[in-house]
Predict the 3D structure of the following.
Amino acid sequence: MKVYQPNELKNITLIGSAGSGKTTLAESMMFEAGVIKRRGEVENKNTVSDYFPIEHEQERSVFSTVLHAEFNNKKLNIIDTPGLDDFVGGVISSMAITDSAVMTINSMQGVEVGTQILNRHAEKMGKPLLLAINQLDQEKSNFEKTLDDLKALYGNKAIIIQYPVNAGTDFNAVVDVLKMKMYQWGADGGKPEVVDIPADQKDQAEEYHNTLVEAAAENDESLMELFFEKGALNEDQMREGIRKGIIDRSMFPIFCVSGKKNMGVRRMMEFLGNVAPGPDEMPGMINEDGEEVVCDVNGKTAAFVFKTSVEEHLGEVLYFKLVSGKLSEGDDLINSKRGGKERVSQMFAVAGKNREKLSEMVAGDIGALVKLKETKTNHSLTEKGVAAFPPIEFPAPKYRAAIKAENESDEEKLGELLHRMHEEDPTLIVEYSKELKQVIIHGNGEFHLNSMKWRLKNIFKLETEFLDPKIPYRETITKYAQADYKHKKQSGGSGQFGEVHMIIEPFHEGMGKPSSYKVNGKELVMKAKDIDEHVLPWGGKLVIVNCIVGGSIDIRFQPAILKGIMEKMEEGPLTGSYARDIRVCIYDGKMHAVDSNEISFKIAGRFAFSEAFKNAAPKIMEPVYNVEVLVPADYMGDVMSDLQGRRAMIAGMSSESGYEKITAKVPLAEMNKYSTTLSSISSGSATYTMEFDEYAPVPSDEQGKLLKTYEKEQEEEDK
Ligand SMILES: Nc1nc2c(ncn2[C@@H]2O[C@H](COP(=O)(O)OP(=O)(O)OP(=O)(O)O)[C@@H](O)[C@H]2O)c(=O)[nH]1
Ligand SMILES: [Mg+2]
C-alpha cells in the first residue's frame, strides 16, 4: 500500500442510533472501494465490520471496527461504532482520534434519543458532523419528518446537499444541490447515472442550492464578497466554504443514502474524500505537558493506542493513530506509560479482520500493531523523550452487578479475565470490594455486562453468575454521647491497663471547637488542644480532639487509641458498614506506670467508642445519585411514576428539541437494573446517566429493614 500523506487522509467515525445502518453503510463503502468483492449483511453475519462471534449472536455491533478504503487517491479511515448506548466507549475512543463523524439517521424514525446522545458527545468533543439520512428505500421512510427533526436539533446549520426524489420502496434517485445534478441508480446501486435535474424538481433544487451557496459563503469573507459580486459561487469555491463550515461546526451537511441498496454511497465517499477535514486541518492532540501535538510528518514520532482487541490467530491487536512523525517496520518506540521499549515488528492497515501489511506510515494515519509486550489501550508509543497523551475520558459507568464464578476454583481465572477485559474496554470497571465482600462490575448497561458474561462463557469457557450488588452504606451519629472504658487484665507477669473517657458527636465542616457538654446532669467542659483531621478512604472524616488535661493519658498512647477507634469505624455497629463524619473528644483517662501499653489503650479506645456510638442515635446513610433521564414526551408520565416509586426527588424537568429531560436524586439502592426497566417502559427510546452525589440518611422504615437484614445475616454467620 502506498504511504498516504496527511492531505490524502480522512479519518471518520460512523456514529448513529442503534440499527440506523452504520455497519451496512460501511459494508457498501468497503465494496465500493474494492476492499471486499461481495456485500455481506448484518443478518447473514457476514459483514466486514461485525466479525466477532458476539456481534453475530446479537446481530448488532458491540465493538468499534477500524476499516479503510482507498478511494479516488485518498485513504478513508472509517471506524464503524456500535449504536447502543451500552457500548458508547467505542464511540468516544474513536471520535477522540478521528477528525469528523458521519451520523446516520434512520429515515423511518427521524432523530432518536440515541441520535441526541451521540450528538452531545460529538458536540462536547468539538467534532465536525456530517448527517447521512439512511434507509431511504424503506416503505416507511419519511424524509420530511427526518429533516424537520434535524432542523429542530441543528437549526439552520443543518444544510441539504442532497434530497431524495422518491423515498420509499421505489427509491432510486437523489438531487444533489451542490453538483446541481440528479443521481440515479439501477436495482443494485453502485455507480450512479448522473442526469439533469427533471423539470418538476427544478424549483425545489434551486431553493436548496441557494440556501447552500449562502451558507457556504457565510464561512469565508472573501467568498462572501465573491458571492455578492457575482451572485454565485463555483463548485470549488462552494467546497471551500462548506469545508470551513464543517470544521467550525457551523454547518451540518445532509446526505441521502440507502446503505443496504448501495445508493448514494459513492457520492458520499467522494465528498468525504474531497471536503471532509483531514488530520492536518484539525487541531492536534494535547499531550500530558499541555502542548498541542499537530499532525506533522516531520515532527517527533508520537502514536496513541485507542483500542485493543484479542483476535483469533493474532492475539492482542493494538489500534493506534500516528499523531505526529513517521513510523516504519522495525522502529523502536518507548511505551510512555510503562517506560519499556517496544519494537514495531508488524504493522497493518485494517478493514475489520482483513489486514494489509504496511512497511511505513506517516502522521495522521491509523493502523494496527501486533506482538507488543506491554502496550494497552490509552498508552502512547513515542520517540525517546516525547510526552505521552493523557488517557481518553469516558462517561461514568451507570450500571453495576456483582459477579462470581459458578465454580469456586475458577475465581482466580475470573479475576485475570476481568482484568484483561478491562484493558480491552476501559468502560468496564472491575472493583474488588473489601467492604461489600463482592466483585462488582461497573458498566454502561445490562447489555454491556451481558456481553461480557457471554464472552466469558463462549470464548473463555467460564460460567459465571451475576448477583445483586450490595450497597455501600455508611453509618454516622446524630447527637453527642459520652462513654468511658477501663481495660484491665492481670495475667502472670505484667498486666494490661488503659482507661479512656470520650465524647463523640456528629462532625460537619466549619463546626466550632468543642466547648461544654451535659452528661448525666453534670457539665463537662472541654479544653481542646490538638485537633487531628483524618480524611477517610471511604469518604467523610474522623476528627480527634485531644482535650486531656493534667497528663492523665500520656501522649504516646494517642496513636493506639486512634487505632482502636478506627477499627470500629471500619465496622459500624448497626450494619457493619463504614462509619463517617464523627468528632471524638478524648478528655480523660488513667494510666498505670507498669501495666499500661499500646494494646491496652487500643482496646480501651475501641470499646469506649463503640459504647458511645450506640448512644449517639446512630443512623444509616446511603449513597444518592444525580440521575438524568432523556425521554420522548410520550413516555414522560410512565418514567416519572416509575421514578417516584424509587424514592426519587425530582430536581428539574425541561424540554430539549422534542425530548424531555428529567433530573432527580435517587438512592443507589433503588437503581438496581434501572437500564432494563427504563428500556422496557419506553420501548427502548429513553436513556439516562447517573453520577454519585452524596450520602444521605435512609428513611427510618428503610433503616428498620436494613437492621433486620443485618441481624439475620449475623445469625447465619454465627451458625
Ligand atoms: N432497507 C434497508 N435496511 C437497512 C439499511 N441500512 C441498514 N438496514 C438494516 O437495518 C438493520 C440494522 O442495520 P445495521 O447496519 O446493523 O445498523 P447499525 O447502525 O450498524 O446498528 P448497531 O451496530 O446496532 O448500532 C439491519 O437489519 C440492516 O439490514 C438500508 O439502507 N435499507
Ligand atoms: Mg453496527
Summary: Residues 700-718 form the longest helix (19 residues). Residues 96 and 392 are 7 Å apart (CA to CA). The chain has a mean pLDDT of 93.
